[in-house]
Design goal:
The complex is a heterotrimer.
Chain A lengths: L1 E3 L3 E7 L2 E7 L5 H8 L18 E4 L2 E4 L5 H4 L3 E3 L8 H8 L9 H14 L5 H8 L10 H11 L5
Helix pairs in contact in A: 3-6, 4-6
Chain B lengths: L14 H4 L16 E7 L5 E7 L1 H4 L4 E6 L11 E2 L8 E2 L5 E7 L2 H9 L2 E6 L6 H5 L14 E2 L12 E9 L2 H6 L3 E9 L11 E6 L5 E5 L4 H12 L6 E5 L14 H11 L5 E4 L2 H7 L5 E10 L5 E13 L5 H10 L9 E10 L13 H19 L3 H8 L15 H4 L2 H11 L7 E5 L2 E12 L8 E8 L5 E5 L8 H13 L6 E3 L3 E2 L14 H28 L6 E4 L2 E4 L6 E3 H4 L1 E4 L5 E5 L1 E7 L20 E12 L5 E11 L6 H20 L29 E7 L21 H13 L10 H9 L4
Parallel strand pairs in B: 1-14, 12-13, 16-17, 21-22, 31-32
Antiparallel strand pairs in B: 1-6, 2-5, 2-7, 3-6, 4-8, 9-17, 10-15, 11-12, 11-14, 13-23, 15-16, 18-19, 19-30, 20-21, 20-29, 24-25, 25-26, 27-28, 30-31
Chain C lengths: L6 E4 L3 H13 L4 E4 L3 H8 L7 E4 L9 E2 L4 E5 L4 H7 L3 H7 L5 H4 L4 H5 L9 H6 L3 E5 L5 E4 H4 E2 L1 E2 L6 E8 H4 L3 E6 L10 E8 L2 E7 L6 E2 L1 H7 L6 H12 L11 H20 L8
Parallel strand pairs in C: 1-3, 2-3
Antiparallel strand pairs in C: 4-5, 5-10, 6-7, 6-10, 8-9, 11-12, 12-13, 13-14
The chains are: A alpha+beta, B alpha+beta, C alpha+beta.
Chain lengths: 157, 777, 283
Amino acid sequence: MYTLKEKTVVTLRVNGEDRQALIRPGDILLDTLRDGLGLTGAKPGCLNGDCGACTVLVDGTPIKSCLMLTAEAVGHEITTVEGLSDTPIQRAFIELFAFQCGYCTSGFLMVCHALAGQMQTPPDAVIDEWLESNICRCTSYEEIGKAVRAVLNGEIK
Amino acid sequence: MSKTGIGVPVIRKEAASKVTGEAKYTADFLEPGTLTAQLVTSTCAHGVIAGIDTSAAAGVPGVRAILTGESCPELCGAILKDRPPLARGKVRYYGEPVALVVAEDAFLAAKAASLIKVSYEPLPVVHGPGQALEPGAPLIHEGLGAYKRIVADVYPEPGTNVCHREKVRKGDVEKGFSECAVILEARFKLPQSDHIAMETRAATASISADGTVFIRTSSQAPFEVRKMLSELYQIDEGKIIVEVPMVGGGFGGKAPVNLEILAYLASRAAGGRPVRLVNTREADMVSSPCRMGLEATLKLGATEDGILKAAEMTFLIDAGGYADIGPRLAKAIAVGCTGPYHIENVSCDSLCVYTNHPYVTSFRGFGHASVTFCIERALDKLARKLRLDPARLRYKNALMPGQTSPTQVKITASNCGNLQACIERVKGLVNWEEGDRLDMGGGKIRAKGIAAFWKTSNSPPDAASGAFISFNKDGSVNLNVGCVEIGPMMKTTAAQILSEALKMDISRIHVNMDVNTRYTPYHWKTVASMTTYMIGRAVLRAAEDVTDQLKSMAAVVMKCAPEDLDIGDERVFLRSDPSVFKSFRDLVHGYHYENGNALYGQMLGRGGFIMTDLNFLDRETGKGKPGPYWTVGAQAVEVIYDTVAHTYRLTKAATVIDAGKVLNPAMAEGLVKGGMCMGLGLGSREHFQYDPAGRVLDTSLRTYKVMHFGQTPEYLVAFVETPFVEGPYGARGLAEHGIVGIPAALGNALSVACGAELDELPLLPEKIWMAKTGGRL
Amino acid sequence: MIPFDFEYHRPASVREAAVVYRQLEEAGKAPVWYGGGSELISMARVGNMGFGAVIDLKSIPDCRLLDNSGDEVHLGAGLTLDEIRRSEKFPLLGQTAGRIADHTMQCKITLGGNLASTIIYREAALPLLLGDATITTGGEKGIKRYRIRDIFRDRLQLPKREFIVSTSVARQYAEAPYFHIKKTKNEKIDYPLITTTALIANGYLRIAFSGLAAYPVRDEVVEAILNDQSIDFERRAEGAAAALAGILLEDMNGSSAYRRFVLKNTLVSILESIKDAQVPCIR
């Protein structure tokens, strides 16, 4: 049994590295990533699982880090936007104007990156389902759709 | 290497930082030792504060201060000083800040805040502006007459809930109606809603030993923050530094000064230590200001052949508990009340009315999406009465050069563009000629609606801006401008304008992404779609300044006259023989002779800009010039409507705007599409709902619904380019506009589709079912 | 930020979970079972829920069960909604799960968490009600099995110290023709105005609803009306809607009258689909 009773230093596997963080058992992953590890790419948008701005990958699956306890993530591979480097989806977002203020961008990137990693040619309905987990208030979403499709169909590699 | 300039799809300067998590927003700066402040907000919409028990919270170790209304007696406001930073004596809306806890970390602040107990004695609640004006309605501000006015042109009516009244009187309305063959009367009701910028408002404050106040904030108006803090707390402006990093969307919601005051008070109470205050989404939606609601009554008259002759209108803004910028919203609605149409005889009363709803502030479109819904829905009804094509009715009445606006500004092609061209173009985009209602069989109707709009700045008549230029030793340029990067790429646009002016590659122009009021030139506010115009003009002046300097310096060095020289590609060259030149890098940090002699110092450029020719509106008639120009456009929405379920799918949304000159086509399209998407949200799903006690029910994104991926239509965007001669390269402001006519176009499409008049937003299937069937099964 | 402290326990077996629950209870820690956690975290943040410890059940192997090799489909309570959907072992449940919250949340919310939710919808319960599921629980006395109809009264009424380990549904029901129609106020990503699920077992239409009332509903009288071949579809749908009229919700998502209108239309469309043999699966 894994137990955390009080403030404890835990090891998290983040972006391929082991990182130590002092946490309360009740801390959420988003706060630990930001305040504990300085990884501020994941953003607080609602702290209620509704907006997706805090999305990170846990073992390759998109997860809203505002609704995961840090304790739950111990022993799993966490990927944040800081762990992406010159990926096709990042390039596509730039080239296809898929963001304006940029605040929702890391969350969308993580969802798109996971989708592209898990599926070769998902049907439109699946793209819609994955991306409707996130909110963008600046764009019309059309640009984001174009960016993820450009990556999925290999136009941007 | 050649110039980049305008008219090309430049990639934004901060792009890489935004796809890597590197871009820093206010709450991303996590200096050690920073305290956390947490708000306690009202659970009552209107009530006397009977008691606040802070004892349990004060006992939490690590709590550094607890503030209530009693700790801050001052009143604040941008137009009228009617709002205590923390409620005093009574609360006027659900969510109003009542107390502020400052503690060593976020956990302790949250824990202490949860222990504060506030008790209220409820007062009767004012649920809307119509009710607020009824005789005997509860008074929300008993001391309205005593409030200090920040501006001369605000007219509160003490003893009532009227915060401000704006009037337009043009022509003779009675006579106008007597000449009409058809008269249309209609009422509209639009709810309050919210900005939902993805980054909630956030501010940090600290006060150093010498009294210098440092504020970092998610704001569209850093210089306004400086001004208001200076004025409220008698601090020299020079001793207040306001820094704004990247901002995660504004949409008008970050134009008012809000959390900055609370963060300052928190730091002051904690001995000047740095304090961070970040809104939860819930607080951002209801505690900080939201978007106005509106109740309107319109009467329009037209001749048999569809020429508008007279309009009589009353607009009641649901301003919520405090004034904020509400009086200016009333002004904007009055100024634009007719829409972009010529009506000789106009009478309009536009009131900013207090209610016990969350208070309101600027929102993308600044009242125009609301007034446009009313006028454009009314026009469609009128077109039906006249048996006239709704697009034709708009085309016929479009304002033309030589005619006048409601506030009697003379219209020119330069200041108002070409609406008729926009209407024609948008008709083409949505295939208007096939008809606005097509039965597709199987209980499905394809329907289209159209709307036109206009918008001007309604800014202070003396709004100002500036630009600094400096050079690096390699000849590249640093541009320093005071607009905030809230998303629409204004920093890059400024660089693009400079690139065009200096005829150089934009990658060699570096622009500050942040704003710091100590070293950034003043810019009024990043609002009102005025940034391109104001900053653009300032940049052009700064460019002219350095161009003159470069030429006169090179003339000495090259032994020729300045007028023989031109610039481009970071060179000053002879017009007659461009192969004879001096590079910027040889000139901008002094000219150095081989023997060691040097001439001139570093080159600095500056450009200042202020609005000219604008004035206050006459109190009785509204006569006056409210902005430098109007941006006009036409929009259309197409839906597929289910006649059985009364549900619908959005299939097309189209916009044609007279942009004057499109500076960055990709960004312009993106901005307009984003605006349309938000407009579809307002039209179809966004609203605040309240319980009978006036408490807001939709305080999170779980129940307050915005548009999501996959539910959006095909977007069609085109531009007309009628130059605005005073604008940078002919450009008009283009930012908010995509939203303005979309709720109206959607309302028109669905009214056509279902065959009932839909005069309330949002257009929920339940509302359509009610309008269509009266609630029958 | 959750404004209070609590302990985190992640047991590796049903027995461990039961033991730690008892220990925490005796220590006055007010423990709660923890699945995906999304509801507990969001409720706790705004002060709607308090506890001294959470017991995270989702890595217990029994809660990860995913098996349809025999006559029954067994699904562990610790599976996420996304895992259930991808497994395709109980398509109606998969489709229902695929319309709860959004996809990213479906990767976190567990089957057990949705069934035990304090929010009124609990849409995952509908297919289980239709499939006469068996609910397997764990606790101090080990594993217990309940028929869902015996313990589902508006919500799963489990003894306090027990938690859901898995659910089992006969394959004949899991693989039966089905319907899933979720209607919302207007935005797709929303709580249901009414979610209707139905399956056809031995030629008989079974139907259950979420969002219609303040709890998930499966009603024998309503099913009898809908299966009454002596009357036409329209009247069956009207009759069923009338039978449910007394419990229809009136809230910010819609009035009870509008719910009744939507309900009737949904029922008509399901009945017509059956006639047209468009079974299975209509959105």
